[in-house]
Write a structure and sequence with these properties.
single chain, 256 residues, alpha+beta, Naphthalene 1,2-dioxygenase Alpha Subunit, Chain A, domain 1, seven-stranded antiparallel β-sheet, two-stranded antiparallel ribbon, 9 helices, 11 strands, 20% helix, binds fe (ii) ion
Length: 256
């Protein structure tokens, strides 16, 4: 076994084959100290062989100007039209040594008029920006490195660490780690992991109800057909459960 220099930061192991590697994690990245990386309980992994130069691909995934135009068909016209008109403006960029970051604003889909939200998003209470009910990370305040421009609502923030590592944090309380491994000048392996907490039924506290009151029309009680099904226990009858009650929600987004 040949020893190689390595260093651990927030549970991530950085390996460097140089005989005397220099310290490259600067203050911009170290400002993430205290993010509860160790508390995440779920990790989803994907891997793809991409027929593209790794740097071009990496730069493209870190460019958000395209979103209102290229992603227009992911939203109802009532949303994508005005979004396209507005365009994209990055509220915060930063370069620190070899590394860089970009922040985006976000949206509150639950507060949008009904015609701006896809029916699937409404049914699943989840969309492009993640689950509508955020994960509780159990921290009073996120590290200052996240959302430094204090954008409200905040969407996500992408830290691009030289040369091939990305941390992408989302406002709803989950994060991605990307790696780009070149296999030739025109191909690479793209690996991504998504870390999140196991979803739990949100507590029915006053604060939670107040937040839900952002929802147009508020949160009605479970519909008549769902309410009795909450007491059914056989597998056959469970199939008849409304998606809302089977997932532990207190209301029926389908209004069935
Ligand atoms: Fe995109």
């Amino acid at each position: 076994m040949i020893p190689v220099p390595c260093e651990v930061w927030e549970g991530f192991i950085f390996v460097n084959f140089a005989a005397e590697p220099q310290q490259i994690l600067g203050p911009m990245i170290l400002g993430l100290d205290g993010y509860p990386f160790g508390k995440f309980t779920e990790r989803w992994f994907y891997r793809a062989e991409i027929q593209s130069n790794w740097k071009i691909f990496s730069d493209a995934t870190q460019e958000f100007y395209h979103a209102p135009v290229l992603h227009a068909r992911q939203s109802p016209a009532a949303f994508s039209g005005p979004a396209q008109q507005a365009g994209f403006e990055g509220p915060h960029y930063r370069v620190d040594g070899y590394h860089r970051l970009v922040t985006t604003g976000g949206i509150r889909p639950w507060a949008l008029p009904e015609e701006m939200v896809k029916p699937t998003e409404k049914a699943l209470r989840s969309g492009l920006f993640g689950a509508w009910d955020p994960y509780d990370l159990g921290v009073e305040k996120l590290p200052a490195a996240l959302n430094p421009a204090e954008v409200e609502p905040w969407g996500n923030q992408s830290f691009q660490l030289w040369p091939n590592l990305v941390f992408l944090f989302w406002t709803q309380g989950f994060f991605y780690v990307y790696h780009y491994w070149p296999t030739s000048y025109r191909s690479h392996v793209y690996e991504g992991t998504r870390s999140s907490l196991t979803w739990k039924r949100p507590p029915r506290t006053g604060a939670y109800r107040r937040r839900r009151s952002d929802t147009p029309g508020g949160w009605p009680a479970p519909c008549r057909s769902c309410r009795p099904s909450m007491t059914l226990s056989s597998p056959a009858s469970r199939k008849r459960w409304c998606s809302a009650t089977s997932m532990g929600w207190t209301t029926c987004p389908r209004r069935c």
